[in-house]
Amino acid sequence: MTTASHTPAQGPLSGVRVVELAGIGPGPFAAMLLADLGADVVRVDRPGGSGLGVDPAYDVTNRNKRSVVVDLKSPDGPARVLDLAARADVLIEGYRPGVAERLGVGPEACRARNPRLVYGRMTGWGQEGPLADRAGHDIAYIALTGTLGMIGDVDRPPAVPANLLGDYAGGSLYLVVGVLAALHHARLTGTGQVVDAAIVDGTAHLSAMIHGMLAAGGWQDRRGANLLDGGCPYYGTYETADGTYMAVGALEPQFYAEFLDLLGIEGHTGSRKDSARWDELREAVVARFKSRTRDEWTAVFEGSDACVAPVLSLREAPHHPHLAARATFTDHGGITQPAPAPRFSATPTAVRTGPARPGADTADVARDWDVPDLMKGQE
Asked: N or C: which end of the chain has fewer CB within 10 A?
């Protein structure tokens, strides 16, 4: 492990060096999380950008990183990446299986230069299997794992959860867990390894509790019919008089009782365990929520344990008093964005720099990492 000289020690991963081979989606987010935790992340951008069409100045997933531009298809491109890998603790790539090998920067080539290297691979389908070489996106990965089919109303198509469930929860977070576990192993043994993080694997893993409930007969294999999927009238969302929504999660008996009391519904104490009365209960809840605005209901449930909250938009969320008090969101460079998470008592984290601009940090990285060849063609 080496200590980066470009920034003061900040975060529990301070001193860890990470090479990120530029891509889109879960790979950059995983690298951002490592950077948020204090790692010195160098993103290797390709000439011409990623093709995502987002102005690099607003790509928050590239915050706290530095960028160099390397053309891996040029004769000396792979050698420059291998020079970085030789000085790194971790490398992350998100190509289809076999692409990194064809470019000359696959696991064998990198780990021949640096046996301690943790080589993290981020894909949708994984490094092997019948679909490994096929194109795909979040929605297809979560579809095959059974998780997409769980989400939404029973009489409507499955609801699309943006790309949060597959790309980031099932992909990025599992890659980071795997990389950190492998980094721990490398420090103990002196030997790195390859981490195969597939979105299908991670997303399936997220449903572990549900599979246990399914096996026990406590979960029906269809959406909108269960305790946690909107089938239960005291765990779901309801429209208010102004066309906005409230979220209800009054599962436990004491929370359910407080919910009914504050909502102003009588005669449904026994409906909690009697699913035959759920439709009747739902009708009553729908009618009550429709009688007032979201802000009015928020005031009613303020300070209670009824487990009811307003459904806020992305622009509204940073202004909620609780999130504002915790500084859950921060403003950096004029961009409101989520602050690094989780929090650490001894090694606090922060948004240190804005999104890295492609190639803007080549000279600094060449100096700090002692890779002078990065500057070839840059003068």
From this structure: C
How do 235-239 and 245-249 pair as beta strands? antiparallel
Give me the residues paired with residue 122 across strands. Answer: 197
DSSP string, 258-300: HHHHHHT--S-GGGTT-GGGHHHHHHHHHHHHTTS-HHHHHHH
CA angle 48, 51, 54 (to 5 degrees): 105
CB 282 within 8 A of CB 239: no
Q: In angstroms, what CA-CA distances link 164 with 153, 172, 223, 245, 282?
A: 19, 10, 19, 21, 29
Q: What does the block give as tokens for 78? A: 């792979």
Contacts of 250 (CB under 8 A, 6+ apart): 234, 235, 256, 258, 259, 306, 307, 308
Residues 92, 251: Cα–Cα separation, whole Å:
41
Structure tokens at 194: 């390859």
| Kind and range of the H or E run holding 209 | helix 208-215
Q: Which residue has the tokens 């509204």?
A: 316
Model confidence pLDDT, tens digit, residues 114-131: 999 999 999 999 999 999
Residue pair 140/215 in contact by the 8 Å Cβ criterion: no
Q: Tell me which residues are annotated as active site.
A: 137, 167
**Radius of gyration (C-alpha) of the chain in whole angstroms:** 24
87: number of Cβ within 10 Å: 17
Judged by DSSP in three states, 27 sits in helix
Q: Any idea what DSSP says for residue 192? A: -
Residue found under tokens 């060096």: 17
**Contacts with 181 (C-beta within 8 Å, 6 or more apart), sequence order:** none
> What confidence tens digit (pLDDT) does each residue in 228-246 have?
999 999 999 999 999 999 9
Instruction: Report the SS3 class of residue 179.
Output: helix
Tokens 């597959």 label which residue?
A: 166
SS3 content of the chain, % helix, strand, coil (to 5): 40, 15, 45
| Helix or strand (DSSP H, E) at 141 | helix 138-144
Residue range 187-222, pLDDT digits in tens = 999 999 999 999 999 999 999 999 999 999 999 999
